[in-house]
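Structure first, sequence second, as always.
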């Protein structure tokens, strides 16, 4: 099992003047500890399950570009971009740029979007759920076109019409940057994951629910004619190793249960990440053990 570090908030001691140095420390330490990837939320306001909207929140792709400059190996992506936030062509140009400037480490993490408050607050259109899923599928189709060898042509969809899908320079990863679709939906989300994704992420679930969700993904793969084993199964959870690593054993056991349920990677918001010591404890006591799962 591989582990990724998810960073869901930036309200740390020292405030905004210290964010740059603290985030750089976190990125470099996480890579040295053996994390496979680093992820940030793509939100503009803090989300309710974490804290008040007024908590510090950085724009996702600017932040990933900064982390790219502090690291050399870890994958980089959003957990996950709401399809409504950016026009597909611009989003894919951003991910391509991240891929080129990071040396081929970008992911496209994407979902149907859900946080209405930030849409209303920043005047971002928030169409009904059915339309958001239609836009998500069109965005995935545009991604495959823009990241193909023959990428410069029109795209005619129900919601998006692109006269040119020119994308120069192209991404370094071949055949394209990896696509991860995230969400809990059992019908539309899993169908799109089965059809388009390199990885599927299930947020906030227990091992039993993860097993059920992965079994449903297998069913969708059969319907789509897709090899289930070609899609990486991942989960998003909160990880607590303790300030000095004292809870490493419990965390390894928890991750072991997810591995038994079929998860191949786990992404975690690490409690106390801004103190650095928990990241070092993960590298010392958890990541080597979890790699054996």
């Amino acid at each position: 099992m591989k582990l990724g570090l998810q960073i869901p908030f930036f309200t740390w001691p020292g405030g905004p003047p210290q964010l740059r140095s603290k985030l750089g420390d976190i990125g470099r330490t996480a890579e040295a500890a053996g994390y496979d990837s680093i992820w940030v939320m793509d939100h503009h306001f803090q989300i309710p399950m974490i804290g008040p909207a007024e908590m510090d929140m950085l724009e996702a792709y600017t932040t990933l570009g900064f982390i790219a400059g502090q690291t050399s190996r870890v994958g980089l992506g959003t957990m996950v971009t709401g399809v409504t936030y950016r026009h597909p062509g611009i989003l894919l140009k951003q991910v391509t740029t991240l891929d080129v400037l990071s040396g081929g480490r970008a992911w496209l993490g994407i979902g149907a979007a859900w946080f209405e408050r930030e849409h209303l607050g920043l005047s971002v259109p928030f169409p009904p759920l059915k339309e958001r899923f239609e836009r998500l599928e069109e965005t995935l189709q545009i991604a495959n076109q823009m990241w193909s060898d023959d990428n410069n042509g029109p795209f005619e969809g129900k919601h998006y019409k692109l006269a040119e899908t020119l994308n120069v320079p192209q991404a370094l990863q071949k055949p394209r940057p990896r696509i991860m679709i995230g969400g809990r939906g059992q019908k539309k989300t899993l169908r799109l994951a089965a059809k388009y994704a390199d990885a599927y992420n299930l947020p906030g679930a227990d091992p039993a629910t993860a097993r059920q969700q992965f079994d449903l993904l297998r069913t969708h793969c059969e319907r789509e004619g897709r090899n289930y084993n070609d899609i990486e199964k991942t989960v998003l959870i909160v990880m607590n190793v303790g300030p000095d690593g004292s809870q490493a054993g419990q965390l390894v056991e928890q991750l072991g249960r997810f591995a038994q349920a079929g998860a191949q990677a786990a992404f975690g918001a690490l409690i106390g990440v801004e103190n650095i010591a928990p990241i070092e404890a993960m590298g010392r006591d958890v990541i080597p053990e979890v790699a054996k799962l």
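Margin note: The chain has a mean pLDDT of 97.
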